[in-house]
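Let's practice the habit of predicting before peeking. Look at the sequence and jot down your guess about where helices and strands might fall. Then scroll down.
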Amino acid sequence: MKVGAENRTKLYIAMALMVLAALSLVWTFTRSAAPASVTATAPQPKAGTAPPAGARGSSATSVANSVDPRLRLDLLKSSEDIEYLGKGRNIFRAEAEPAPEIPKAITPPITQPVVQQGPPPPPPITLKFFGFASQSGESKKVFLAQNDDVFVASEGDIVKGRYKILRINPNSIEVEDVLNNNRQSIPLTQS
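Done guessing? Here is the structure:
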């Protein structure tokens, strides 16, 4: 039993391909290392002036096609002398440009406010008088409501620490807002 005897043809093909690959690599590297005999160079612009738009592209193309590894100081110098002419922010300057001045808005003349005569009226009393009860030998009591709260009071009582019941009449009551010195008559409501 011979090992590799059946793969002898594959071995020869692989060796031939390796030789071809090595030859193509050698040919590629020797060709790129050869000095460029003829290089097309664009005329160089004078110092301080920008080259025309068409010349920029051809100069860049000639530099890209050249394989000369030397540093071209003349091309660097010409790029240093180009002044930035963009309309936006100059990315080569550290300080920001001053903001444009905003025009001031025209303000209408200030008129004197109208002075009201006297103090504002006190807030209304928001209690509802919806009934009363009287038993013999006791004082009359009234039923009052504010929102969902129901109160039972008689004459002289203070409801919610603010409203004093002054007088109970058959169809209304007299109430005083102790905080604002406001007196108001509240009629009996049928609900």
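How did you do? The first helix runs from residue 8 to 33.
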